[in-house]
Amino acid sequence: MEDSGGGGGVAVESAAVDISKQEVNASNAEEAGQVVTPWEVAGKDGGKIDYDKLIVQFGCQKLDQALIDRVERLTGKPAHPFLRRGVFFAHREFDKILDAYEKGEKFYLYTGRGPSSDALHLGHLVPFMFTKYLQDAFKVPLVIQLTDDEKCMWKDITVERSQHLARENAKDIIACGFDISRTFIFSDFDYVGGEFYKNMVRIAKCVTLNQVRGIFGFVGEDHIGKVSFPPVQAAPSFPTSFPHLFGQRKDVRCLIPCAIDQDPYFRMTRDAAPRIGFLKPALIESLFFPALQGDSGKMSASDTSTAIYVTDTPKEIKTKINRYAFSGGGDTMEKHRKYGANLEVDIPVKYLSFFLDDDAELEEIKKEYGAGRMLTGEVKQRLIEVLTAIVERHRKARAGVTEEMVNAFMAVRPLPNMYG
Amino acid sequence: MASPHTKESLLAFLEVNQIEAKTYDHPKVLTVEEQANYVGHLEGGHSKNLLLKDKKNRLILISALTSAKIDLKVLSQRLGLGKSGLRMAPEDIMQASLKVPLGCVTPFALQNDSARSVTLLLDEGFRMKSKVFFHPLSNDATTAVSPSGLDKFLRLIGREPVYVDLEAIVVVSKEQQPDLASYLVDMSTECITKDQATIETRAVQASLPVLIQGMNDDVTKSVVKPKSKASPTAPQMEFVKPAGADVQATTKSILDEFLSAVQKEFQVTSQVVEKQGEEVATVTSNSWRQRLVPELESMLVAFKNAAYTEGFVAGIASCSRAKGKGQT
After folding, report:
1. Where is the YbaK/aminoacyl-tRNA synthetase-associated domain (chain B) (predicted)?
2. Cβ–Cβ of A408/B301 closer than 8 Å?
3. 3-class DSSP state for residue B52?
4. Residues of B whose CB is below 8 A from A396
5. How far is CA A200 from CA A142, A237, A242, A248, A411, in A?
6. Which DSSP string corresponds to A328-356?
7. Do A400 and B295 touch (CB under 8 A)?
8. How many angstroms separate the CA of residue B163 from the nearest CA in chain A?
């Protein structure tokens, strides 16, 4: 899995960018503006992404207030800020998951990461933070796929190095606070085989070469490893891929939290599912996490000033926010007091809406800042506090993750209390 | 000071602790090449072991696969010591700390108390081998253990095994911190003890009596007690292990978190009470909850995961023991 253009979560990266992608181009024809695919994300004329248009374009559903209320009712606790604030804003058949849950039927979560050598940044944490919330709120098991094989192929690193990176990334993922009695982490190189491989082949038989060319942009020069990779990422959507967890049951539903650029990819999986006797996996999809520099900036692994990393010190966080976070405040004090801040483009407020838990405080800040009574510096100060707390907590948790713990999370073992 | 360990005492130690080890005797060897003449044909991970020292006289034992290509300049930077911060440790230092002769450097020597402060970095590659080979404190033999056997040995002598990719070329720069620096056993890693003492002292000095009213008496007592003990004494030099499933350490962390929150909240609360005239009890309770819940939950899930891991390790060990003894 790999994230593109700042999005976290489940993704597949592809090499070629400038060949015609039948499927997406067809639907893009009318739009002739923004481009959102698993490997490329760009707004119309380099501007913001229009998420409403995207929902229409992809054909998924908007996550409305009724669903959020239903989640709160069913789980008996407030919905996660990411739901309340519209960070996770679209879905496919999430309502069916809630129906099943209400009837007492089981479901499981599936998410993953393409292990890279870079430290995780906050954008990477978003899907994992949300997945943790889902795990705790619904008390369901979770499988996490580390696509070391994908990295080995796309980034051209050795098998051993990609396996090593998978373990390193696993530690950061574990530090997000997943419950070991309900979580199975696996790397493709370790786990592919047996029932998982049988499902890969069943899926592969449903997808033509032309289709993957259309979805992922493969060309004749791409090596065959890439072309045969997509079923690896589709297989975890089906419970029989994990016989130690679900035995031979085909009726356990799967919910996949991911960034919306993955939608075309899971459309492929959902298309194959009924043809091989499986339930379609449900999706719950998020916006892209903005770069520090704002919508025009793209989060780049090579430029560390574009993101806050989980390894940043409090001092570095302070410097990065103060220096690089794009401000929607007025150019001068007078203009700011008179016209207020432009909340549409202001990054500190956007980041706060991701990470500040207190709804009342966030509203207060938006009101005061938007009216020009609060200054950019104060908003940034609050953001620095919030982010420092998150990063510090992560760092402490990460320090407590031992090799044995990673082995335990990754052991193929039954999880007897996974719904407890 | 305890007398240095010998090959015999080491092998006895391994046996008593049920760490499977097979020892091959051969004439004395001083180099990896010579050693290979006698045991090189055996399947598994053969090791080369270097004892290095930095400018502050800290010792680092690098234990790697013989096939590993190690660039000492890169390693030095990864340890945060600059480009030429590492040298081979001279024989007298090796003798004094590891208590083994030249050509005999081995992780087993860390059993000696004199090697307490030596940092051990193990080659990642060992983990994938069925067996790994080291000198058992003597040049005239080579002992094979499994990687988990080695881990068990290290834990028994109070160390957490650290495996790293010794060959990785990590370029240290502004963006890329020295990735191995945190493993260096250092005086400063003990500042946890000092900082905790400071927090507790400060908490006592803030006007707590009002807030502690109605709180558990035990909490008050534990706040007061450390004040007398909290003198800035020299910290012991010990490798700081993660708290894991350690109940005392977790409780301490929880209390520290709580007390530092008390300190912060006292200031915030008094402002809110002034501004809005709300009940002290409600304000403190709600905002404390908000501030504390994420921290406590994070600590407790880490605790749970560590406890489960201990059980898992024990389970695996007892299964393989049962298998080894012919039972299933």
Report:
1. 26-153
2. no
3. strand
4. 298
5. 19, 11, 12, 16, 21
6. -S-SSHHHHHHH---TTT-HHHHHHHHH-
7. no
8. 9
Domains, in order of start, for chain A: 65-289 (3.40.50.620), 314-400 (1.10.240.10)
The answer to whether the Cβ–Cβ distance between B175 and A181 falls below 8 Å is: no
Rounded CA-CA distance B182/B167 in Å is: 18
**pLDDT given at position A209:** 93
- The answer to whether A252 touches A3, Cβ cutoff 8 Å, is no
In angstroms, the CA A390 to CA A290 distance is: 17
Q: What angle do CA B229, B258, B274 make, to 5 degrees?
A: 115
Distances (CA, A) of A325 to A348, A351, B159: 7, 10, 43
Placement of tokens 């307490």 in the chain: B116
List the single residue in B with minimal CA-CA distance to A307. B175
The residue among B245, B243, B255, B254 whose CA lies nearest residue B310 is B245
Q: How far is A393 from chain B (nearest CA, A)?
A: 7
Contact B109, B157 (CB under 8 A): no
Task: Give me the long-range contacts of A34-38 (CB less than 8 A, separation at least 24).
Answer: A36/A260, A36/A261, A37/A217, A37/A261, A37/A264, A38/A4, A38/A11, A38/A12, A38/A13, A38/A14, A38/A215, A38/A216, A38/A261, A38/A262, A38/A264, A38/A265
pLDDT band at A305 (very low <50, low <70, confident <90, very high): confident
- Show contacts of A60-69: CB within 8 Å, 24+ apart: A60/A90, A60/A91, A60/A92, A60/A260, A60/A263, A60/A283, A60/A285, A61/A90, A61/A91, A61/A92, A61/A94, A62/A89, A62/A90, A63/A88, A63/A89, A63/A90, A63/A91, A63/A94, A63/A284, A67/A91, A67/A94, A67/A95, A67/A98
Q: Does B309 contact A180 at a Cβ distance shorter than 8 Å?
A: yes
Rounded to a whole number of angstroms, the CA Rg of chain B reads 25
DSSP string, B131-143: -EEE--SSTTEEE
pLDDT in tens, B62-104: 999 988 888 888 888 888 888 888 888 888 888 888 888 888 8
Strands B21-25 and B141-145, sheet pairing? antiparallel
Which residues are registered as beta bridge partners of A61? A91
Strand partners, A88: A286
To which residue do tokens 């033509």 refer?
A208
Q: Using CA atoms, how far apart are residues B325 and B328, in angstroms rounded to an integer?
A: 8
Q: Where are the domains of chain B?
A: 7-164
Residue A277 has pLDDT above 50, yes or no: yes
CA-angle at B103, arms to B100 and B105, nearest 5°: 50
Q: pTM of the full predicted structure?
A: 0.64
B2, with CB counted inside 10 A (0-12, 13-18, 19+), is: exposed
Predicted local confidence at residue A128, as pLDDT: 96
- The answer for residues whose C-beta is within 8 angstroms of residue A236's C-beta and 6 or more apart is A110, A112, A143, A145, A196, A242, A254
Q: How far apart are CA A99 and CA A138, in angstroms?
A: 13
B7-164, what's its fold? Answer: YbaK protein (3.90.960)
Q: In the 8-state DSSP scheme, what is residue B166?
A: T
Angle between helices B280-324 and A403-410 (to 10 degrees): 80
Q: B268 by DSSP, 3-state: which?
A: helix
Of B151, B161, B302, the CB nearest to A400: B302
Would you call A396 and B242 a contact, using CB atoms and an 8 Å cutoff?
no
Q: Show the tokens assigned to B196.
A: 């905790």
Assess contact for A350 and A48: CB atoms under 8 A: no
CA–CA separation, B39 and B47 (whole Å): 11
DSSP A134: H
Q: What is the largest CA-CA distance in chain A?
A: 68
CA distance B292 to B282: 15
Distance, in Å, from the CA atom of A229 to the CA atom of A231, rounded to the nearest integer, reads: 6
